[in-house]
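Field log, afternoon session.

UNIT: design team B
ACTIVITY: writing a sequence onto a fixed backbone
BACKBONE:
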C-alpha cells in the first residue's frame, strides 16, 4: 500500500479499545490524512457487541446475566443485531474513501468485500457462497457460507466527508475456531431480555477449522487476508 494507506493488526485487543482505535482511523480518513486502512483484529475477552440505538437497551439485567456467562458488553455504530466477539473470531475493517465522481452503490460495495473474502477462502482450498443464513445471528444477504452454514457476517457504514465524497467502513466477522453453541448463547440471552423475537440456532454456523486438516496461526490468516486485499481490492 502507498504511504497514505495503512495495515494494522491486533491478535488480541479489548473490543472497546479496538472500536476507539477504529473511530480515530475513520477520522483520519475523513480528514484526508489517510486514504484507506485495513484493520485486522481478534477480541481479547468474550464480548457481546450491540448496535448503538434504543432498540438494544443496556439494562442491569442484561449486563449481569452476560457477566454470569463470562461475557462483557459494549456497543458499536454498525450492524443491526448483537454480534459475539471472542478469541477464535477474526474481524476486519476496511476504511476507504469513495469520491463524488465514483458513486457509492451498496450492493457493489458489499460484493467487492465478499469477492475479496471468497478469494481468501479459495487460497485455503475452501469454496463459499454469498447469501442470507436463516436463524443465524446478525443475519444479512451478504453472509459467506460453507454448505449453507454461515462462516462470515458483513456490515457497512457510510459517512460523508466535509469536502465532498464519502468514507466507507466495510466490516467482516470470520468464525475461525469457536464453539458455535457458545457464541450464540449471549445473543439468545440478549434477544430474550430485549424482547426481540429472532430465533437463533447454533447449527446454522460453522468454523473455518472444521473444514481444514491444518490449524494455521492467527498471523498466518491475517497475512492471507492482507494478500487478498492487496491483490483484489479496487484501487
Amino acid at each position: 500500500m502507498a504511504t497514505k494507506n495503512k495495515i494494522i493488526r491486533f491478535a488480541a485487543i479489548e473490543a472497546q479499545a479496538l472500536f476507539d482505535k477504529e473511530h480515530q482511523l475513520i477520522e483520519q480518513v475523513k480528514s484526508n490524512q489517510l486514504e484507506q486502512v485495513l484493520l485486522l483484529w481478534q477480541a481479547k475477552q468474550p464480548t457481546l457487541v450491540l448496535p448503538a440505538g434504543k432498540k438494544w437497551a443496556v439494562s442491569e439485567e442484561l449486563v449481569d446475566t452476560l457477566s454470569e456467562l463470562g461475557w462483557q458488553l459494549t456497543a458499536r455504530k454498525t450492524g443491526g443485531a448483537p454480534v459475539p466477539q471472542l478469541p477464535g473470531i477474526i474481524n476486519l475493517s476496511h476504511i476507504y474513501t469513495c469520491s463524488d465522481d465514483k458513486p457509492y452503490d451498496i450492493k457493489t460495495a458489499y460484493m467487492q468485500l465478499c469477492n475479496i473474502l471468497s478469494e481468501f477462502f479459495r487460497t485455503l482450498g475452501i469454496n463459499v457462497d454469498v447469501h442470507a443464513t436463516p436463524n443465524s445471528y446478525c443475519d444479512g444477504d451478504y453472509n459467506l457460507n460453507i454448505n449453507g452454514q454461515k462462516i462470515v457476517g458483513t456490515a457497512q457504514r457510510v459517512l460523508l466527508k466535509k469536502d465532498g465524497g464519502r468514507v466507507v467502513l466495510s466490516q467482516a466477522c470470520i468464525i475461525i475456531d469457536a464453539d458455535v453453541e457458545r457464541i450464540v448463547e449471549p445473543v439468545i440471552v440478549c434477544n430474550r431480555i430485549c424482547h426481540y423475537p429472532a430465533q437463533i440456532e447454533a447449527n446454522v454456523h460453522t468454523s473455518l477449522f472444521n473444514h481444514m486438516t491444518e490449524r494455521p496461526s492467527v498471523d498466518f490468516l491475517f497475512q492471507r487476508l492482507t494478500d487478498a486485499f492487496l491483490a483484489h481490492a479496487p484501487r
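LOG NOTE: The two ends are 10 Å apart (CA to CA).
NEXT ACTIVITY: expression trials, pending approval
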